[in-house]
Automatic annotation (TrEMBL):
PANTHER family: N-ACETYLMANNOSAMINE KINASE (PTHR18964:SF169), ROK (REPRESSOR, ORF, KINASE) FAMILY (PTHR18964). This is MarR family transcriptional regulator. One of its GO terms (molecular function) is N-acylmannosamine kinase activity. It comes from Agrobacterium vitis (Rhizobium vitis). It comes from the Bacteria.
Length: 354
């Protein structure tokens, strides 16, 4: 597996010069998050390694580790060496915390429960509200064979629903758009967050995009950022939603049949390239990923056709050299509920964005 492109400054501890106005509890919380983030990214480390990487003293690291050990988030082991000396090393406990992610649809929805290693230990879909609500309540109440989650990430594809959110009990909840949920999963357990940020384009019933940069989601005015499905190359042309959405794919296949799928892929790739060039030419992200509610082979062909269309455009328009190639999502078989389940870890256990 390739090394994740994660920003190193996300694990910067609070030093004395940064501590003005912060309580000792705030400093301890931040530095505990910094240690957790480093262990998550690098794996088991000794006190000396943690102290060197975070530029903290070994006694300070010892205190931080003791708090994490007491919370059950970290375990202690011995590193095998060629000498008789065995250094104590520390690692995150995958079962030390769980996050619950839910995607609420008009009727029912999906849920995912993930551990600290990013493993999806439980996944369910429901077509009816009653069964969905009951399952969420059981997970929150630790009645499904796992400890209660530390929080809930919520993707709402329906109107605000107080009856649904009441199933979370006293757990903290974090609302995300579908693209933000996908970005959360990619940031922590997928491609990471490369320099320049990460863009995802999702082909669902509408085409939407999301951007995370410096650890923050970019939402734009009134949260409208990423609604690229309304884009069109001219007044006489159809929108991206009309030409390249999952809804347009289904309509095309129903009218023309599977044998004509390449025609839809060609038209969709051409339109998607316009969006890719527009977004990436200005933002210059470190990576662009494509996914959504299309068959995996169709997504793969779309990515290939986008690359071909880009080469074809160079006859009359040369895109900026820094525009990255489009790649598939790291978890194409997992829906937004998985990424939503990662949100509680980001919000409650890992360093907060500056």
């Amino acid at each position: 597996m390739g090394r994740r492109l994660v920003r190193h400054q996300t694990v910067r501890p609070v030093e004395d010069r940064d501590a003005q106005g912060l309580s000792p509890e705030d400093i301890a919380d931040h530095n505990g998050r910094a240690v957790s983030a480093l262990l998550l990214r690098e794996g088991p480390m000794t006190r000396q390694e943690l102290a060197a990487r975070l530029k903290l003293t070994e006694p300070a690291i010892t205190g931080i580790l003791q708090r994490l050990l007491s919370a059950g988030l970290v375990c202690k082991g011995n590193r095998q060496t060629t000498t008789r000396y065995k250094a104590a090393e520390f690692a995150l406990v995958s079962s030390g915390a769980y996050g619950l992610g839910v995607e609420r649809c008009q009727n029912g929805g999906s849920l995912a429960l993930c551990n600290l290693a990013g493993d999806r230990v439980l996944y369910q879909r429901f077509d009816q509200d009653e069964a969905f609500f009951t399952a969420v309540q059981k997970i929150v109440g630790a009645e499904m064979g796992f400890p209660a989650p530390i929080g809930v990430g919520v993707v709402m594809n329906a109107d605000k629903d107080d009856a649904f959110t009441s199933t979370f009990g006293e757990l903290p909840s974090f609302t995300l758009s579908k693209s933000e949920a996908v970005l959360a999963g990619e940031r922590l357990f997928g491609i990471g967050e490369p320099e320049g940020g990460l863009v995802v384009v999702l082909i669902d019933d509408q085409v939407q995009a999301g951007l995370i940069i410096n650890g923050r989601f970019y939402r734009g005015t009134h949260g409208r950022a990423g609604a690229i499905g309304a884009m069109r190359p001219g007044l006489a042309e159809g929108t991206l939603d009309m030409m390249a959405s999952a809804a347009s794919y289904r309509a095309f296949i129903a009218a023309r049949g599977e044998s004509e799928v390449e025609r839809w892929i060609e038209q969709a790739a051409s339109r998607l390239l316009d969006g890719v060039v527009t977004i990436a030419g200005f933002i210059s992200p470190g990576a662009m990923l494509l996914g959504g509610q299309l068959p995996a082979n169709v997504i793969d062909r779309l990515i290939e056709k986008i690359a071909e269309a880009r080469l074809g455009k160079e006859r009359y328009f040369v895109p900026a050299a820094w525009i990255p190639p489009v790649r598939p999502l790291s978890f194409p078989d997992r829906d937004a509920a998985y990424g939503a389940a990662i949100a509680p870890f980001i919000e409650l256990l890992l360093p907060k964005s500056n």
